[in-house]
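User: Structure tokens for this complex, please. No commentary.
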Amino acid sequence: MTGTGTIADAPGVQLARGVCRAFAARGLSTLCEFTLKNGRRADVVALDGAGELAIVEVKSSLADYRSDGKWWEYLDYCDRFYFAVPADFPRDILPSDCGLMVTDAYHAEILRPAPLAKLNAARRRAMLLRFAQVAGQRLTRLTDPEALIS
Amino acid sequence: MTGTGTIADAPGVQLARGVCRAFAARGLSTLCEFTLKNGRRADVVALDGAGELAIVEVKSSLADYRSDGKWWEYLDYCDRFYFAVPADFPRDILPSDCGLMVTDAYHAEILRPAPLAKLNAARRRAMLLRFAQVAGQRLTRLTDPEALIS
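Assistant:
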């Protein structure tokens, strides 16, 4: 990134957008940069009409993947977990028991569906509530920013 | 409203904004124009950090109140129900067993707290899920409108 780049130019943000578009096309709602109760920040969380939750970890490069080994800390907060990587990523090194998406700034494709590991009811309720609150607050920040200035 | 007025100029929309600001100041997330499963459209739905849901019906005038008598159809979809009216509304005519807010375009005040009538778990879960989905979709429509064009 150059000195004039913005956060939206960052490769991870662009790739996450493609992931969100792929989910939106299937009718799911998505949030980016979603902080979990354990303090980890999920790149993308997607919610379907039945309340099922997917987390997607975007890795823009091998260096990006190697710099953060703690992806399993996301597993307790979703029903399905995916890695999403660009087309030139050496995807053979990714764990084969996770879902896999290939993504760019405009769309994404699921190469390997994530296995289902169902959340328990209490955790799902907590995640739904947090998703609803965060989405509502971000919406208010865009539509009536003065509402959040106290 | 004149011919050049927009939806955002409508008195009900302005008054709903004041209601949303009052909830935002207390840390609640809000959505306006939220369609319930029974087809009714709630003016404001507010969600707190414990998952409690309030519905607010905004009445800009006596004529507005009289033209829609079916407010009790909201009661099955919230833990607390409020009417919100402007300061010059004849509020003695409102049912005394509902919550009451006085609102303008900028803020609102609770004059009478709504009694708590707790939702059952299944209905609360359905409402949380719908709130999360609607908020997420509206956010996407604002941040990446192309995501929703298929």
